[in-house]
Design goal:
CATH class: Mainly Beta
Strand content: over 45%
Oligomer: single chain
CATH architecture: Beta Barrel
Number of helices: 2
Helix content: 10-25%
Radius of gyration: 15 Å
Largest sheet: 8 strands, antiparallel, barrel
Distance between the termini: 17 Å
Order of helices and strands: EHEEEEEEEHE
CATH topology: Lipocalin
Length: 153
């Protein structure tokens, strides 16, 4: 039910790379599809300079519904992904706990089916991020862009 195309509207994180890259970040598209064995294939397309970069991840399902795990070979990090809230048609709130040898961090993502979301949903995202211990400096509503928004099927 999470499958299809989403826009990343909000991103909150207490990781160092987020602090460094925050000012460069823009809205991106994410396409989610299900694999034969019930895992999630997640492809994000985002603007990087003049180009559109694609990143593909496989979220492996766990025994708990709405929970997935992902290991990044590139960064040597393990991600514990939890779908916190969604109504599938409008928005999804996803929390990720990331652990690697250098320590752990928290990331919260707000996905939307359209490029705009109601103030209530944005407020809920901010509120939830704060509950995860994130500060206002670490919470970002991503600037809209038309770059890389073409039908990234």
């Amino acid at each position: 039910q999470l499958t299809g195309r989403w826009y990343s509207i909000g991103l909150a994180s207490n990781s160092n790379w987020f602090k460094e890259k925050k000012h460069l970040m823009k809205m991106c598209t994410t396409v989610i599809s299900t694999t034969a064995d019930g895992n999630l294939d997640v492809t994000s397309t985002y603007p990087k300079g003049d180009q559109c970069e694609k990143r593909n991840s496989l979220y492996t399902k766990t025994e708990q519904p709405g929970r997935f795990s992902y290991t990044s070979a590139r960064w040597g990090s393990k991600h514990d992904i939890r779908v916190v809230e969604t109504n599938y048609e409008e928005y999804a709130l996803v929390a990720t706990q990331i652990s690697k040898s250098t320590g752990s961090s928290t990331m919260v993502l707000l996905y939307s089916r359209t490029k705009e979301l109601s103030p209530e949903r944005l407020e809920r995202f901010t509120q939830f991020s704060r509950e995860q211990g994130l500060t206002d400096e670490e919470i970002l509503i991503l600037p809209r862009t038309d770059k890389c928004m073409a039908d990234a099927a």
